[in-house]
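Incident log, support desk, overnight shift.

02:14 A customer reports that sequence design results differ from what the structure should imply. Their input is reproduced verbatim below. On-call engineer (initials T.W.) acknowledged and began investigating.
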């Protein structure tokens, strides 16, 4: 792709698209003005020429059987006087004999229905405008009056000068005004370009652009929206790297300690025991990595996520059936409530499955200490006003409220980690992130009568109804 110097600037292109049609319109207008001026100038001078022919014709009389022009040379000079043009005339009889005037002044053939006709003729090496007038009284005769065209041409030039010159000045003023306005309107684009060019790669703050036009505001908004998405993406990458470093430090150190302890032993039984512990720690570290990857993917998918109508009862049924073998192996009574009828919510199938996977995994790991009878985990769907609530409840020992909220933070450890084990904070952070992406609300709390632990995901029914109407 060639550089920007190979393309015209937007300002020049806009001006060209405006000024070229405007100039063509002016040229067409000038041609029309020239044609109109020429037409009316010719009509005015031709009318004067015809008046002179009629005046001469009115002074033709018959005396003693001959036709004569009853005007003296002085009177002819007065009748045919013109300060600019030179006039010529001739009067000829029906037989073609010249009665008066100049010899050789050609007649215009084929007179029109009005008895006269105008034409351009050549006389004494000059082009004259002539009119031929035929009269029948007292006897048939023809009058030819011709004149030079100096006055016509001069008048036409003055008309064009006085009409086209102001138009040309106005065209120049319009061009100057349009150039000024276009330059002013495009200045925010230049400022936007300069702001982006001078921006450091690590600076993802919104770009400040003067709000002059709607298009400029939209472009600046689109760029700022892109910067916000990039900022979220960069922040997610940084958080992912920090989470990986933080979460893997402890299990890797533990694996190393177990390996060093096993190497220091000489009893094969101790080696086997340490290897089993290393395998368990490795599995826990792998699960952490998977959760961190899922969390990073959730952050990246936020911009392009499209929600739709999801059958919540089907997702619950499928997930519970998938976890039944693990629950039976752990001696946990896993059940589901509220899945007898169809329940639709606005969400994403994979995100809801991810929520249930993490909640059930945490419940089977940390909520089955049998503090209140045989271990049990229940997944339920219920209606609460205008909300559809998905909940996962266990009957374990639970946690105080402040620790429940702390576990929603990524990689929560400390007292909560000691009570429930490693990794639960990441799972709940994923659940909170998935719920936020779908516009749902997540709450943690104790079970009925303070027994166990419950996580509730509330979907708004109004959003689901709006989605259904849009789909229909």
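02:41 Re-run completed on a clean worker. Output:
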């Amino acid at each position: 792709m060639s550089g920007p110097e190979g393309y015209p600037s937007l300002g020049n292109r806009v001006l060209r698209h405006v000024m070229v049609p405007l100039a063509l319109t002016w040229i067409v207008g000038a041609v029309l003005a020239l044609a109109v001026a020429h037409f009316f100038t010719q009509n005015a001078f031709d009318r004067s020429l015809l008046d002179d022919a009629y005046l001469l014709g009115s002074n033709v009389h018959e005396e003693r059987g001959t036709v004569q022009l009853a005007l003296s040379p002085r009177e002819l000079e007065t009748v045919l006087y013109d300060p600019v043009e030179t006039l010529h005339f001739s009067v000829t009889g029906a037989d073609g004999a010249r009665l008066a005037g100049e010899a050789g002044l050609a007649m215009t053939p084929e007179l029109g229905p009005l008895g006269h006709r105008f034409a351009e003729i050549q006389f004494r090496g000059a082009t004259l405008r002539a009119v031929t007038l035929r009269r029948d009284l007292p006897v048939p005769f023809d009058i030819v009056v011709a004149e030079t065209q100096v006055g016509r041409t001069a008048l036409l030039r003055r008309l064009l000068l006085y009409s086209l010159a102001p138009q040309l000045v106005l065209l120049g003023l319009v061009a100057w005004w349009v150039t000024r306005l276009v330059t002013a309107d495009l200045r925010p684009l230049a400022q936007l370009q300069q702001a982006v060019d001078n921006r450091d790669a690590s600076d993802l703050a919104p770009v400040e652009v003067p709000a002059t036009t709607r298009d400029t505001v939209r472009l600046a908004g689109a760029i700022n929206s892109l910067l916000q998405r990039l900022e979220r993406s960069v922040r997610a990458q940084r958080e992912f790297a920090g989470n990986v470093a933080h979460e893997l430090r402890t299990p890797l150190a533990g694996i190393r300690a177990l390996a060093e302890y096993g190497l220091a032993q000489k009893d094969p039984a101790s080696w086997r025991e340490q290897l089993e512990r290393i395998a368990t720690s490795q599995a826990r570290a792998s699960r952490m990595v998977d959760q961190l990857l899922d969390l990073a993917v959730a952050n990246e998918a936020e911009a392009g996520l499209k929600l739709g109508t999801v059958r919540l009862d089907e997702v619950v049924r499928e997930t519970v059936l998938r976890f039944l073998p693990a629950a039976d192996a752990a001696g946990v009574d896993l059940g589901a409530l509220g899945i007898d009828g169809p329940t639709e919510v606005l969400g994403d199938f994979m995100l809801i499955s991810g929520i249930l996977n993490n909640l059930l995994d945490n419940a089977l790991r940390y909520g089955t200490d049998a503090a209140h009878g045989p271990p049990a985990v229940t997944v339920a769907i219920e209606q609460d006003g205008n909300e559809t609530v998905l909940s996962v409840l266990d009957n374990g020992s639970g946690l105080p409220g402040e620790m429940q909220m702390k576990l929603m933070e990524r990689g929560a450890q400390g007292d909560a980690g000691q009570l429930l084990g490693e990794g639960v904070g990441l799972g709940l952070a994923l659940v909170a992130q998935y719920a936020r992406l779908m516009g749902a609300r997540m709450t943690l709390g104790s079970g009925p009568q303070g027994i166990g632990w419950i996580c509730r995901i509330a979907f708004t029914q109004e959003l689901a109804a709006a989605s259904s109407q849009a789909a229909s």
